[in-house]
Amino acid sequence: MEFQSKKILVMGLGTLGGGVATTKWLVKRGAKVTVTDLRAKRELAPSIKALGTDAKKVRFVLGAHREADFRTHDIVVVNPAVPRGSKFLAIARAAGKQIVNDARIFFDLAPNSIVAVTGTRGKTTTANWIAHFLRAGDKAVFAAGNTPNRPLLADLDRLAHRPDTPAVLELSSWQLELLGEAWRAPDVAVITNLYPDHLNRYRGMEDYAHAKAVIFQNQNPAQAIILNAQNKWTAFFLKMNPRGRHYFFSLKTLPRDTQGLFLRHSEIIFTESGEVKTLAGKKFVRDFVSVWGTHNLENLLAAMLATHLSGLAWQTILARISSIPSIPFRQEIIMRRRAFLVVNDSASTSPDAVIAALTRFRGSGARLITGGTDKKLEFQNLARIMKKSIPAAQTFFLNGSATKKLLRELSQVGFFGKQRPQVFENLPDILRTIKSGLKTHNRQLTTILFSPGAASFEKFKNEFDRGRRFAEAARKYL
Q1: d(CA 59, CA 56)
Q2: Domain 7-100 belongs to what topology?
Q3: How deeply is 339 buried, as exposed, middle or buried, from its count of CB atoms within 10 A (0-12, 13-18, 19+)?
Q4: Are 296 and 107 in contact (CB under 8 A)?
Q5: CA dihedral 45, 49, 51, 57 (to 10 degrees)
Q6: 332-477 sits in which CATH class?
Q7: CA angle, corner 339, sides to 293 and 292, nearest 5?
Q8: Which among 57, 7, 6, 59 has a CA at the least distance from the CA of 37?
Q9: What's the pLDDT tens digit per position in 23-77?
């Protein structure tokens, strides 16, 4: 893929750093770059500043997109947030223009081995733990993707000179949408699971699943695909006949002829080519779940399996489990006091994520803070789980379009009784209310669980901004 002297249109500079990294990379390659974004210059000022001197080499079209730009540029580089159905992309396609994104560029140009992780839940944790395992012996690893502040193209040129450095990429469905046209696929691909999400972008679950399936679309038989044996959408992926070697992870026993990593009698078992190996016993599993929760045991199995298939010995992987990192905004414990625990789960953007958090923390006197912006998701199941898991008096709602849907479902199942819903417009008011209701002499642990289960855009820039602001408010008011 050639960019030098080409007219390149970057569609979406954005505010998370990905558009900045892409623009700087293109300028460095000698491209003639135009950046177009629907946001005004004032909103994008931090991103423009981050371009530094490269901003002088860029032509900006801000506050609107111009149809002519999509006909006259050679290549359109799309920010992942741009919907596939954009009329401007349709104009570019009709004009015969090439449309790519940062993931497509990375896969076409990086000479490194690639482990790619996607899924509705757990992909950030799984990707970070894979990178942690691969760093054994202080080995260099490039970890990037959908994780904030580490764009895919930020270090691409450096990686080109370090082909032995493995790349671990967390990829959203949005990034995967254009990856099917790349000349290569991940050496190891992981789909952690699939649950309803982003249905404001996709026509339904099958459309969403097809976007995820692109991760293994171009694999060859020497590469590997790892799937969650317990997720109902795994059967859908298998019907697409992935060409990579099939491996599975599961919290239940796998059939004898299945290759993968699973639990049998609460022990971790690995099977491959008819061989069976016990990797860890009941005490290890029990201790891990007590600290990290059952859902993270799934993430651990997926990460261990992907790392082993990348060439690392089981003994090395097992030795590094005790030092796995906690991931920001994902059931992250940000404060411990004698009387309470504060958990920041701001990356919880779907009802299933709230259910996972409640499952882990509901036995610890939880106060749940939830709610946000709707993504056309359903909240019936979450409402039923909340009724079983937490009293209405211990539930606090951050107002938003998804919150209104959740409140309707909770009313349908009789969650509130005589209790009025506690709905607030900001986090500080919620935290002050929770603190005033806590008894200073209480010796039992109280967990303050911030798990929105929805998008963030009505009140915050994104879920990372939301998580940072919750952490700031928690430090201030608790």
Answers
A1: 8
A2: Rossmann fold (3.40.50)
A3: middle
A4: no
A5: 80
A6: alpha beta
A7: 10
A8: 59
A9: 999 999 999 999 999 999 999 999 999 999 999 999 999 999 999 999 999 999 9
